Amino acid sequence: MNQDNENTGNQEQPTPVGIQNLTVEEPGPRRLGAGTRLRNYFLTGLVVAAPVSITIYISWWFIALIDGWVKPFVPEIYNPDHYLPFTVPGVGLLFAVAGLTILGALTANLFGRTVVAYGEMMLHRMPIVRNVYSALKQIFETVLSQSQSSFQQAGLIEYPRKGIWSIVFISTETKGEILDRAPIEGDMLSIFLPTTPNPTSGYLLFVPRKDVIILDMTVEEAAKLVISAGLVVPGQKAKDDKEMLRGGPRRGAAAPAKTGEKVH
Questions:
Q1: Which residues are paired to 169 by β-bridges?
Q2: What is the CA radius of gyration of the chain?
Q3: Could you tell me the residue range of the domain that residue 219 belongs to?
Q4: How many structural domains are present in the chain?
Q5: Residue 126 counted as domain residue
Q6: Does a structural domain hold residue 244?
């Protein structure tokens, strides 16, 4: 009996569970070093400051450019630079907007249209000038007249082959000779297929309406998706914010898939 007690006393006592958990080092997120954190802070500051700085610079450059063109023609009595010890930016831009508005109002009546018609008649008699003027006039008329109706929707088409989808901007319904001669039944859409990361270049395509999937995202959101090469997903930030408020998965955390559900 004494021997059993001695053997029992010599056995190693089990460590309590709470103490054992404290002694075991659990794998957790590694702390970032000072250099890595400084780099992340710098990149974050660059992302915040660069768009604002570039926007301010371009706006200031444009205002200064218009002021340099218009201010020499502004009478001194209306130019505040002659009364103040400093230069007021934007005065030339205001006079330019006012002048264009007055010019448009004068051209809208019969007398103004007559003067413009005679001026265009003289320009059309000049060999080189008439080609430049006609091209510029057509471009401005097309852009300004279609500015309210162009690219109101974004869509998806299978391009450049079946099974591969590309974002497109829907311009208008196809009309005229293209619709009449195309060997396709039904309506067609004139769409613009942008390139990445420059959405200003691309391809004009005429596609049957049934082959175009209309998206819920706006044209601006689709343009951001194209420019960022798929990195900026429309509506993703708002969705992540809602999930964070609900205590759901954070950005980058994949939700568990249900039985029979495909994981993309």
A1: 154, 192
A2: 34
A3: 153-235
A4: 1
A5: no
A6: no
